[in-house]
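Students often ask why we bother encoding 3D structure as a string. The short answer is that it lets us treat folding as translation between two languages. Here is a chain of 338 residues written in the first language.
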Amino acid sequence: MKKIFTSIPNLLLTLFLCFILSSCSSTGVKLNDGSPWETIQFEDQANVLDVDFIDNKNGFLVGSNRLIMETNDGGETWEKRDLDLPSEENFRLLDIDFKGEEGWLIGQPSLVMHTFDSGKNWTRLSLGNKLPGQPYLITTVDDGIAELATTAGAIYKTTDSGESWNAKVVDASGSGGVRDLRRNTNGNYVSVSSLGNFFSTLDNNDDTWVAHQRASSKRVQSIGFNPSGNLWMLSRGAEIRFNEESEDIESWSKPIVPILNGYNYLDLGWDPNGDIWAGGGNGTLIVSKDKGKTWNSDPIASSLPTNYIKIIFLNKDQIDTQKGFVLGERGYILKWKG
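And here it is in the second language, the structure alphabet:
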């Protein structure tokens, strides 16, 4: 009799777990026969953190340990470049962005640099001592115009090539600090709070962050915009969600869990064919060709000893064909070959 009563809690726990798992859309993941990616491995094992191109041939990548490299052949080969910075300062170069020959580069701690000549010469700008947070995202809006976002959720705009900066946000505390932050081409922002317990949105014409509840009890890992402007969300437990109604920001699909391997997804990207790519830990790079219903694993990506931290597809007026990169750790990146 005692055995029967002892087994009841175990049975209830099993039923509960089945109920939880049934609320997620979990798909089997097969290995693709081929891959649209080619591997690039740098001798310097610094982590590449961002890539941008000026035109079809010329571009830069930046990363940890002051890493900056330039390509003049569309990303086939890369050469190291040096910035005019004191040797004792070790910067983590986070973000680089060009519009035509003008570009901006930011890093931590408190680094902002500007170029007018396609990166041949860079000028370091002073941010002062009162900047809330550290630089996180830079966007070249137009000639002499840029927007700088920080880890505190503050956003500043310059219209005079960095001579002066004006705050766009009245109270940055509404963002809850920043774990992840994105901007779309319309000038709208979305961010994940530093603890991952909620996300916030900021419309281009507003000056106040609007906080929103996360989709479940699991903390949010990252969030961003798809090509049509709708939101996607990655949560702990390797969950993927899509915003189903653009008019209702808190309306989310059921969580999709393609692989239960203990590694979270860190970024999503849409390739030129409209396929969705998700990257994460332990060589995880998967693709869906049916809007997230089913997923396959990429054979080249899965063979590399790295974590994929960022997926970039560049679609700019100055570039004839869309370029794509998956940024991994320890000197690995993947280049889109289509």
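Translate back mentally: Confidence is low (pLDDT under 50) at residues 1-8, 11-26. Keep this in mind for the problem set.
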